[in-house]
Amino acid sequence: MTFGELATEYLERHAKLKKRSWREDERILRVDLLPRWRKRSAAEIDRRDVAEILDGIMDRGSPIMANRTKALVSKIFNFGIARGLVDHNPSLGVPQPALPRERSNRICLV
Q1: Among candidates 77, 86, 82, which has minimal Cα distance to 1?
Q2: Which of 3, 19, 82, 91 sits CB 3.0–4.6 Å from 37 for a disulfide?
C-alpha cells in the first residue's frame, strides 16, 4: 500500500466521518506530505523521512504547523495499524518539532 492510498483511506473512513477539521488534514496532506510520499510504500517510510518533512516545515518558519503535521502522520499510521494496513508508525520516537505555545490566562476587560 502506498502512503497516498493509506492517506485516502484515512480521510474517507476516519477524518471525514469523525473530525470537523478534516479539511485541515486534507490540506496538510496536499501541501506537505503527498508531494513527497504519495507513491512511496507506506511500510518504507521511516523516522528519518518524518524528521525531514518536519525540518522543512520548521525551516520555513512554521513551528505550529510542524507539530500538527507530526500529529497527522501519527494519526494516519495509527489508523493503518488498527486496520492491518501497516505494521509500524514512523513518527514514534520523533520528538515534537516545537514546544507548544502556552495560552495566556490574562483576562481582557473591555
Answers
A1: 86
A2: 3
